[in-house]
Design brief:
Ribosomal Protein L30, Chain: A; 2 helices; single chain; 3 strands; alpha+beta
Length: about 60
């Protein structure tokens, strides 16, 4: 199964609480932090919700 490398590239200071909770669930806390997640519809939906602060690449 494919994986996604998700990196937080922008500040979270102006985000709403549900968006912050989504980032927390993805495992991202600091700018520049990266995580690898399985590529599935649930993760894709979470990424779509906060895509304006993320960089995503398939690995």
């Amino acid at each position: 199964m494919a994986k996604l490398k998700i990196t937080l590239v922008r500040s979270t200071s102006k985000l709403k609480k549900p968006q912050l909770a989504t980032l927390e669930a993805l495992g991202l806390r600091k700018i520049g932090a990266s995580v690898e997640q399985k590529d599935n519809p649930q993760i894709r939906g979470m990424v779509k919700k906060v895509e304006h602060v993320l960089a995503v690449e398939e690995i």
